[in-house]
Write a structure and sequence with these properties.
The complex is a heterodimer of chains A (239) and B (311).
Chain A lengths: L1 H21 L3 E2 L1 H15 L3 E11 L5 E11 L3 E8 L4 E5 L3 E6 L4 E6 L4 H12 L13 H8 L2 E10 L2 E9 L3 E8 L5 E8 L6 E11 L17 E2 L7
Parallel strand pairs in A: 1-8, 7-13
Antiparallel strand pairs in A: 2-3, 2-12, 3-4, 4-5, 5-6, 6-7, 8-9, 9-10, 10-11, 11-12
Chain B lengths: L1 H17 L76 H4 L36 E2 L5 E3 L35 E2 L7 E5 L2 E6 L2 E6 L2 E5 L6 E2 L7 E5 L2 E6 L2 E6 L2 E5 L6 E2 L7 E5 L2 E6 L2 E8 L2 E7 L1 E3 L1
Parallel strand pairs in B: 1-14
Antiparallel strand pairs in B: 2-18, 3-7, 4-5, 5-6, 6-7, 8-12, 9-10, 10-11, 11-12, 13-17, 14-15, 15-16, 16-17
The chains are: A alpha+beta (239), B mainly beta (311).
Chain lengths: 239, 311
């Protein structure tokens, strides 16, 4: 009898926790559909290039302004050019190696890399703390990731941003407010704003431009050859 | 009793996983109360040729509804007019941020891509002249020839939005106009026209200069046998043209002859070294004396050759 009571107690606790964790969640069907359309659009591409014009403020209030050009080919080639207030740095990934080059320091490193772009983005981010421009939108499970990590996903309908007609969405959780504007005509992201609820300073804003869908990109652009006079320096893992 | 230890252990794992820190990038890694769903990308290796293996949907999504939210909750941004493209102000106005009012992103950032010179897309070459891509407000008596019909009879793309010019870098073999090299690749060949010799390699033309070779624009009427990967094929009024690196070609007897830019031709890329000019309130890109009108269509940034006439 005691055993049964104990089991029921455990099961009740599980059910309570399970219900409580999803209680209060608010997901708008239209917002989910808009994100699904975005991921479907990107998921059909065999190559892609775009630019990201971003501005961020870190926890200490330091501003960073960056323009990035991203080139992707198949599931295992990536080239990223970053020019910004923290210097210019490029990333190359050719399916086997990940290379980065810091223009201002004339330094580079070449690392063994996983066999597809998203794994590279994950592993480099996790190990070295490097954020890749617009990486969020590249994941094939973007909608599910947002549903899993945010309590609320709202749909604000059509809004014009820079004269571009967009669908406006907003996801919130206890830490952040994430606003996404998806270009209505193309189903591609146009703008992203992330505001922190817990830190007054933290802020991130990006505009996505120059989308080229399935462009012809030569393989050579994903290869890195260290420039003459540059120095190999080990990329420091994040603490 | 041992059985219950396992049950407790399973419960502890269940509780622990929901508190796991989140995912990779900003949205995914933004922290959250749900958490722990996918700690890293676990998709297939090189599934198909899609850049991400194709979109995926969970079979166990939470329920959704339509909510009537006509206004944003306080504390969030309204994007309207957040970026003023015609009047760039690179100074970040943080006054709004300081007051804790995030109601309008325009106070956070007022920027314009037109002022960003992305000229130096040098890849491995880090000594390209950065001074080329500049915004120039041309004050000259030039106007667009409105009598011409562009793109198979349709004049322009005014219903589509303008995009700013960003010089394209064609890869490692590409060098922009004026670039100097001391040696040429072994694949370079000599081509001639009007008793002038040029060295041609991968869509780039060089002339010999003191101690090396300097990149020049493609000479009109010169003939080459091959065009490099990345060449664009253009269909215009039943004619086929070929384009690479700012030069237009027609195919004759299996070879490619450089021609003047065909009026109305639509291309994807203009190399670095072009200049944005404002004529009659519209922005154009000038590259090698050819005017291009930037426009976007179906998410693609394109340029259309327009003919200017002296007024």
């Amino acid at each position: 009898m005691i055993k049964k009571v104990f089991l029921y107690s455990i099961l009740s606790a599980l059910i309570f926790i399970s219900c409580n964790s999803s209680g209060g969640d608010e997901y708008d069907t239209r917002a989910v559909e808009s994100l699904d359309k975005l991921t479907e659009t990107i998921g059909k591409l065999t190559s892609l290039s775009y630019s990201v014009d971003s501005y961020s403020i870190d926890e200490e209030g330091k501003e960073n302004d960056k323009m990035s050009d991203v080139y992707l080919k198949g599931s295992h080639k990536m080239f990223v050019e970053n020019k910004g207030s923290k210097g210019n740095k490029n990333f190359w990934y050719n399916g086997e190696k990940f290379a980065y080059f810091l223009y201002n320091e004339n330094e580079y490193d070449i690392l063994d890399a996983p066999d597809n772009t998203l794994k590279v983005i994950d592993s480099i981010h996790n190990k070295f703390g490097i954020n890749f421009p617009a990486a969020d939108f590249l994941y094939p499970t973007l909608t599910d990731d947002i549903l899993d990590n945010y309590d609320q996903l709202l749909y604000f309908g059509e809004e014009k941003v820079d004269n571009v007609m967009c669908i406006s969405l907003e996801a919130t959780n206890e830490d952040n407010i994430v606003q996404i504007w998806i270009e209505k005509e193309t189903n591609l992201p146009y703008k992203l704003v992330i505001s922190s609820k817990t830190n007054e300073n933290k802020y991130y804003e990006a505009i996505y431009l120059n989308w080229r869908l399935n462009p012809k990109l030569p393989d050579i652009m994903f290869e890195f050859l260290p420039p003459e006079g540059s120095e190999r320096k080990e990329l420091m893992a994040k603490k | 009793m041992k059985k219950y230890k396992y049950i407790v252990l399973v419960i502890m794992i269940f509780l622990g996983s929901s508190a796991t820190d989140l995912l990779a990038q900003r949205v995914r890694g933004g922290g959250g109360s749900r958490g722990g769903a996918r700690s890293s990308y676990s998709g297939g290796s090189r599934s198909g040729s899609s850049i991400n293996g194709g979109s995926r949907k969970s079979s166990s999504r939470p329920s959704t509804s339509q909510y009537n939210k006509s206004t944003r909750p306080s504390g969030s941004n309204n994007s309207s007019g957040s970026r003023n493209k015609s009047s760039y102000n690179s100074n970040k106005n943080k006054s709004n941020k300081a007051s804790g009012n995030k109601s309008n992103a325009s106070n956070k950032r007022n920027s314009n891509n037109n002022t960003r010179n992305s000229n130096n897309r040098s890849g491995n070459n880090i000594n390209i002249d950065n001074s080329r891509n500049v915004n120039v407000n041309v004050n000259k008596n030039t106007r667009v020839n409105n009598n011409r019909h562009y793109y198979n009879g349709r004049r322009g793309y005014h219903s589509f939005h303008h995009h700013s010019y960003r010089g394209f870098h064609y890869g490692r073999h590409w060098h922009p106009f004026g670039f100097f090299v001391t040696t040429l690749a072994v694949t370079a060949i000599i081509v001639s026209i009007n008793n002038t010799h040029y060295h041609y390699d991968q869509g780039v033309y060089y002339v010999q200069s003191s101690g090396g070779y300097t990149v020049v624009y493609a000479p009109t009427n010169i003939v080459v046998v091959t065009l490099p990967e990345g060449m664009e094929t253009i269909q215009l009024n039943d004619d086929s043209y070929y384009y690479f690196g700012g030069a237009f070609y027609v195919k004759e007897n299996g070879k490619y002859r450089v021609i003047e830019a065909p009026d109305g031709a639509v291309i994807t890329n203009i190399p670095e070294g072009g200049e944005e000019v404002e004529i009659g309130g519209n922005m154009y890109v000038v590259y090698n004396k050819t005017y291009y009108m930037p426009f976007s269509q179906n998410g693609k940034d394109l340029y259309q050759v327009v003919i200017m006439e002296d007024s």
